[in-house]
Amino acid sequence: MTGGVGGGERLDSWKAIAAYLGRDAGTARRWERTRGLPVHRVPGGKGTSVYAFTSEIDTWLKSPAHETAADEGSIPEESAGSWKWAVGLVAIALIGASAWLVGSRRPTPTDVKVHLTEQSVAAVDGQGRQLWTYQLAEGWRHIKTEVSSYSKVMMGRDPRVYFITSHRQKSDDTVEGGEFTALDITGEPRFTFRFFDSLRFGGKPYGEPWAITAFDVLDGDPAPRLAVAAHHWLWGPSLLAILDDKGNRLGTYANDGWIEQLDWLSPERLVFGGFSRSKEGGMVGLLDPRELDGQSPEPIDSPHYCDTCGKHPPLKLVVMPRTEVNLLTQSRFNRAIIEKVGDRLIVRTVEVPAAEGQGAADAIYEFTTSLDLINASFGDYYWRIHDRLQLEKKVDHDRQHCPFRNGPGSIHIWTPESGWSVLAPN
């Protein structure tokens, strides 16, 4: 045993985990498989290389999942024969009870919460009782998406659980693309979607693997519509696909720069957020999902133009350039994050990512749902970092004399009618 997290100890084998539980190793393995016992796989280790933290096991022991598991105590081999008749009677009773439970308590979407690990997806009800577990492909570590929510439970006439994995990876660093999966409310699979596309931007080819970044579901009538996005594993291009409720692709949109967020506004409007490589700035765009295939507006001779993609442009595209704080701190691209508040879209561009002890430094833009700008400003942490840069003599002015003291200096707007234009928000 070695030091663990949360004040607990790390148990480095099935034997140690079983000893901590006061059970045999077979029972510990079964509880991990059927009851969600929190066990982790060692990256790069063999299939049997596992570890667990006592703090996580203690929490699990207090959960309803353990109360059910605790009744499963293993029967010693030497007494198995004398128990056969009792086991048979219990099995018959359990079959009848299970059939009654399935018929009398089918989980509803308001009950279900989803938890994703590197090996499985588990659903629990509102009281924390485990409903079912869906096993992911064996031999891989399935990684969550970095920015957006990874799961969603949808109501309607055909309740479903949707979830995404960014990508999956083996111990030898082999990588495959992520998956967008739909299950019914009892955990039975409906479909799994992956990107296998091969694109060419400026004559350069880009193919698998594609890391899935975001999805959203429009719970429509007669059937839902789905949107899912991914970016190339190593480089800049992104894809956005519109699917029907069976996972069939209806259209595709491409962009040179990562798309990391999707939000349905209506059946005719989908907003997406991310980054534009050609304009070097956080990006928010508006699409008509009924009029795909398409791509972001770029000149045909540009390295950012997709030679193999559709030609339909977006309804509108807005790019918010990187700020002086972003550039002087040498931070990564200022990705755009969207939040719908009433009839407004609040778009934050992360100029400096959050660090220990401080929040993210961001620029904040308020738009209508048609992407008309209402207001723009900087958050508090932006100015704290600006003050630090002044003390370090990396900027030669304080906030009061900053040319951007009233907010971001300009944004770039594209529409089919007028092409690109520049707007000064303040």
What features would you describe in this structure?
- The chain has 426 residues and is α+β, with helices and mostly antiparallel strands.
- The protein contains 7 helices and 29 strands.
- It has 2 domains: 2-74, Arc Repressor Mutant, subunit A, CATH 1.10.10; 114-423, no CATH class.
- It has helices spanning 14-21, 25-34, 54-61, 64-69, 80-104, 324-328, 380-391, and strands at 2-3, 9-11, 40-41, 50-53, 113-116, 120-124, 130-135, 141-143, 151-154, 160-169, 175-184, 189-193, 199-201, 204-206, 210-218, 225-232, 237-243, 249-256, 259-266, 269-276, 281-287, 294-295, 316-321, 336-341, 344-352, 361-368, 373-378, 411-415, 419-423.
- Helix 1 (14-21) packs across helix 2.
- The protein is globular.
Please give the structural blueprint.
Blueprint: E1 2-3, E2 9-11, H1 14-21, H2 25-34, E3 40-41, E4 50-53, H3 54-61, H4 64-69, H5 80-104, E5 113-116, E6 120-124, E7 130-135, E8 141-143, E9 151-154, E10 160-169, E11 175-184, E12 189-193, E13 199-201, E14 204-206, E15 210-218, E16 225-232, E17 237-243, E18 249-256, E19 259-266, E20 269-276, E21 281-287, E22 294-295, E23 316-321, H6 324-328, E24 336-341, E25 344-352, E26 361-368, E27 373-378, H7 380-391, E28 411-415, E29 419-423
Parallel strand pairs: 18-22
Antiparallel strand pairs: 1-2, 2-4, 3-4, 5-6, 6-7, 8-10, 9-10, 10-11, 11-12, 13-14, 15-16, 16-17, 17-18, 19-20, 20-21, 21-23, 23-28, 24-25, 25-26, 26-27, 28-29
